[in-house]
Specification:
This protein is mainly alpha-helical. Among the domains are: 27-64, no CATH class; 73-127. It has five helices and two strands. The chain has helices at 2-15, 50-57, 59-64, 66-117, 120-129, and strands spanning 28-33, 38-43. The longest helix has 52 residues, at 66-117. InterPro entries: FtsL-like. It comes from Taibaiella lutea. This is Cell division protein FtsL.
Length: 152
């Protein structure tokens, strides 16, 4: 049996020079215009054809997909707004960090000046202008003994 099938298939291949491709034509539906009573033939687009793609892009397709297009528009607006906000936030962070560096340098400068001004040698020079001089002897405590009062 298998030999007969192979022979039949070989005969079919030899007789056919070109493969036969069956094309499906789009169905045509007559549309009746009630005012003029004329039959207008409107071709129904085949799935995946150029006509179907053009119908999606046409006014009818746009109106049909309006909620989706509005959603995409809102998403685009939110994306642009978020991007602009992030850029301005980055700029303000950079400005604040520059200001912080400057204030840190001012703090360190003032702190070093204060340390220099309060050093012992600077204090001696300043007090000499007021007529004060450093102690020659170490400081000492003065203790005063108060005699206890006698009661009569």
């Amino acid at each position: 049996m298998s030999g007969n099938r192979l022979n039949k298939m070989e005969e079919m291949v030899e007789t056919q020079d070109e493969p036969v491709v069956e094309a499906v034509a789009p169905e045509i539906e007559p549309v009746v215009n009630k005012e003029k009573k004329e039959n207008i033939v409107v071709p129904v687009p085949v799935k995946g054809s150029w006509r179907e793609v053009l119908d999606r892009i046409s006014y009818k397709g746009i109106v049909k997909n309006m909620p989706y297009l509005m959603f995409l528009t809102v998403l685009c607006i939110l994306y642009i707004t978020n991007n602009n906000r992030a850029i301005s936030l980055t700029r303000s962070i950079n400005d604040k960090s520059k200001e912080l560096k400057e204030l840190r340098w001012k703090y360190m400068d003032i702190q070093s000046r204060l340390m220099y001004q309060t050093s012992e040698t600077q204090m001696i020079n300043r007090s000499a202008a007021l007529g004060l001089k450093p102690l020659d002897r170490p400081a000492f405590e003065v203790k005063v003994k108060i005699p206890a009062a006698k009661e009569n």
